[in-house]
């Protein structure tokens, strides 16, 4: 039977399996039958912002509800208190009964955004990302209430809970009691938490996820010190991926970029199941290579980062800082007796006094059978006092590079 002769329901089911929107557009050109089956799939991912060019597809769905069944993902920005805007988003939420992923950026009005979110049909929702900080008990109650209505939720993202005196207030006053209740209904597979999430929130959200949580994203904060309450990851026996990142404030950040990551990794009790570790320690900053950046230390890790990596990790990616070639080779040599690492992505730099070159690092990776992608840099002296430069990282040093990447994919 020719494909166009198949029932429309089967054609629609086939079109639903095509992921790339460009392929969907091509499929529409095959025949009228395929056009009817494929056209609704153009609306499976909707992005809603305050500027019209992005909202066209979403407004088509609002105007023609027949397409709403195909919507699977909605990414919406709800900043501001425009009532018409929130009413339009509410209508969109109420029409789309098959949505499994919602991402919301509430701006400065999280309570209003949560009120709008209540219109979303939550029975099929599997992924929820709320990129706003909850700063009042009312906001936490509203979030916990919606969280409680999502029985199939498996992936959650929450930027933060920053309520003054949270530990001193009663559970009923802050919504903690409701959050405890709703958390018992969920076994999360993935969790993403921002810098303002205290450890008590992490423990509540994961109370039923010790054997199901596989993917964890955490934003590091400066408070990760000896006095802060560390996160204990040892109960999560299925955890395979850990992503740590930190936001760098260009004007006010004066700490070493890797200190928070080292402290966290040393104290988190990573489970033996952990296989993939990703560190983004300067995610919004480019390396300053104009020869005038006196804060070279901002890019150089302290030499202890690699030693803090859990030995069970097989895939390691470090971005935003550079490791000295000598430190990397010594780290790789320490793995020789139990080579668990199979893939490495790293920025490396060589000092004038370094023993090992960039190529030596690549050679060591190859000897151990580690697939590698190395971005090489050089730290050079500008001609002023060497001892002073090496001691405090002043403007005596300059970074040069990156040079051509050193890549080995495991072949010959």
From TrEMBL:
This is F-box domain-containing protein. InterPro entries: F-box-like_dom_sf, F-box_dom, LRR_dom_sf. Residues 4-47 form the F-box domain. It comes from the Eukaryota. Pfam families: F-box-like. It comes from Leucosporidium creatinivorum.
């Amino acid at each position: 039977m020719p494909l166009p002769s198949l029932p429309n329901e089967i054609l629609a089911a086939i079109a639903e399996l095509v992921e790339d929107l460009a392929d969907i557009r091509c499929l529409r050109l095959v025949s009228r039958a395929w056009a009817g089956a494929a056209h609704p799939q153009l609306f499976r991912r909707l992005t809603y912002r305050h500027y019209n060019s992005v909202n066209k597809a979403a407004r088509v769905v609002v105007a023609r509800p027949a397409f709403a069944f195909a919507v699977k993902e909605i990414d919406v920005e709800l900043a501001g208190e425009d009532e018409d805007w929130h009413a339009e988003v509410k209508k969109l939420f109420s029409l789309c009964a098959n949505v499994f992923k919602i991402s919301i950026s509430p701006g400065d009005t999280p309570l209003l955004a949560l009120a709008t979110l209540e219109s979303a049909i939550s029975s099929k929702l599997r992924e929820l990302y709320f990129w706003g900080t909850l700063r009042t008990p009312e906001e936490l109650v509203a979030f916990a209430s919606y969280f409680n209505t999502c029985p199939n939720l498996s992936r959650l993202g929450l930027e933060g809970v920053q309520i003054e005196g949270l530990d001193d207030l009663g559970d009923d006053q802050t919504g903690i009691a409701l959050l405890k209740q709703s958390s018992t209904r969920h076994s999360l597979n993935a969790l993403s938490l921002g810098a303002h999430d205290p450890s008590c929130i992490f423990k509540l959200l994961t109370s039923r996820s010790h054997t199901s949580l596989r993917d964890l994203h955490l934003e590091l904060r400066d408070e990760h010190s000896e006095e802060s309450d560390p996160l204990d990851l040892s109960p999560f026996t299925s955890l395979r991926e850990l992503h740590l990142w930190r936001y760098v404030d260009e004007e006010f950040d004066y700490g070493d970029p890797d200190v928070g990551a080292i402290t966290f990794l040393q104290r988190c009790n990573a489970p033996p199941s952990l296989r993939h570790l990703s560190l983004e320690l300067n995610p919004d900053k480019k390396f300053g290579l104009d020869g005038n950046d006196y804060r070279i230390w901002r890019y150089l890790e302290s030499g202890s980062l690699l030693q803090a990596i859990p030995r069970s990790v097989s895939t390691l990616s470090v971005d935003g800082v550079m490791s000295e070639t000598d430190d990397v080779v010594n780290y790789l040599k320490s793995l020789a007796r139990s080579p668990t690492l199979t893939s490495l992505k790293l920025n490396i730099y060589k000092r004038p006094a370094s023993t090992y070159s960039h190529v030596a690092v690549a050679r060591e990776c190859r000897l151990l059978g580690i697939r590698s992608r190395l971005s090489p840099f050089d730290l050079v002296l500008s001609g002023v006092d060497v001892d002073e430069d090496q001691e405090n990282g002043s403007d005596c040093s300059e970074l040069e590079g990156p040079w051509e990447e050193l890549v080995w994919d495991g072949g010959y």
